[in-house]
TrEMBL record:
This protein's name: ABC transporter ATP-binding protein
One GO cellular component term noted in the UniProt record for this chain: plasma membrane
Entry annotated with the keyword Membrane: yes
Native source species: Lujinxingia vulgaris
Family assignment from sequence similarity: Belongs to the ABC transporter superfamily.
Keywords: ATP-binding, Cell membrane, Membrane, Nucleotide-binding, Translocase, Transport
């Protein structure tokens, strides 16, 4: 039966998602370890974290592809454990899962049309909606091609378009731009920015800090099943121990002993595999001294980023 988007029982004022002590175990392994968060309507909220942090599992609980093992989860004001949940929530929520589950044997348009029919649209309505979404996804010229002939970026855009068929006011996207080249990623970001302008609630996961910083109003940084910080991008970056970072390259080998007094002038130092990060209030004098005294270790200055926040909170880089 097609979902009924006009269900009167949903509370329009309730947060898009409310989680308290949310938990998911796989046997003995705790994938999501009692997390709390609240996502407002119209907000773009991102879960940022490394592989295995528990982001996808959290998303799957929200769109009901995974059971909840503990705590409370409300989506659009409905308790995830309630019997009404599935039909009502699925009507209100567009889901773009991580795995590509397009029908590769049929055309781009047909992939959309099948879902239009599922939502009970007439042929004329379905055609109109397909045209709108092909335009939105920049796939008009590909509409009659089989999906197997699309690039990875085009497939991703088609999956996003498919998630929008019912004009959901809440859209969940699991890693919307993973594996895309910079141009394809930019296209996806532009599409998501348009949804944001229309006040659609966006909930996404990513391990790209630039994506999180660029798109999200608020970000929950996840690590090992926990939320280690949740704030606006600027609020998170302001938590860094210093606003500027000097990166010293280790490409030509480790730092010599006489580097130590320079490192001691930084507020905080992080040693990574290929570089050393020095967190400072103002970099000018120290960079000058480093360049003069450590010519084999080029220094680059940048502003503190979400990656630095992650490093400071967890002791590891996002890519680890
Ligand atoms: N069905 C499953 N059975 C057993 N363990 C699982 C299952 N699904 C996920 N896990 C484990 O739960 C942990 C969290 O996985 P999850 O996919 O939520 O992480 P993630 O943050 O989304 O990572 P990624 O960025 O790689 O998608 C991982 O250690 C994963 O191996």
């Amino acid at each position: 039966m097609p979902p009924d988007a006009s269900s009167p029982t949903l509370n329009e004022k309730a947060p898009a998602v409310l989680a308290r002590g949310l938990r998911r175990n796989f046997g003995e392994f705790v994938a999501v370890d009692g997390i709390d968060f609240e996502i407002e309507r119209g907000e773009c909220f991102g879960f940022l974290g490394p592989n295995g942090a528990g982001k996808t599992t959290t998303m799957r609980m929200i769109y009901r592809a995974s059971p909840v093992d503990g705590g409370q989860l409300e989506v659009l004001g409905l308790d995830a454990a309630s019997g009404d949940f599935d039909r009502q929530i699925k009507a209100q929520m567009g889901v773009v899962a991580q795995e590509d589950n397009l029908d590769t044997e049929t055309t781009v348009r047909e992939n959309l049309r099948v879902f239009c029919r599922f939502y009970g649209m007439s042929t004329a309505e379905a055609n109109r909606r397909c045209d709108e979404l092909l335009e939105f996804a920049g796939l008009v010229e590909k509409s009659d091609q089989r999906v197997q002939a699309l690039s990875g970026g085009m497939k991703r855009r088609l999956m996003i378009a498919r998630g929008l068929i019912s004009r959901p006011r809440n859209v969940i996207l699991d890693e919307p731009s993973t594996g895309l080249d910079p141009r394809a990623r930019q296209n996806v970001w532009d599409g998501l920015a348009r949804l944001r302008e229309d006040n659609v609630t966006l909930v996404l996961t990513t391990h790209y800090m630039d994506e999180a910083e660029r798109l999200c109003d608020r970000i929950a940084i996840m690590d090992q099943g926990r939320i280690v910080a949740c704030d606006t991008p600027t609020g998170l970056i302001a938590r860094c121990s210093a606003p500027q970072v000097i990166e010293l390259s280790l490409r030509r080998g480790p730092l010599p002993d006489h580097a130590r007094p320079f490192l001691e002038r930084a507020q905080r130092v992080e040693h990574l595999r290929d570089r050393v990060l020095l967190y400072v209030e103002s970099p000018e004098a120290l960079v000058g001294d480093l360049t003069k005294n450590l010519p084999d270790h080029p220094a680059m200055v940048r502003r503190a980023s979400l990656e630095d926040v992650f490093l400071e909170l967890t002791g590891r880089g996002l890519e680890d």
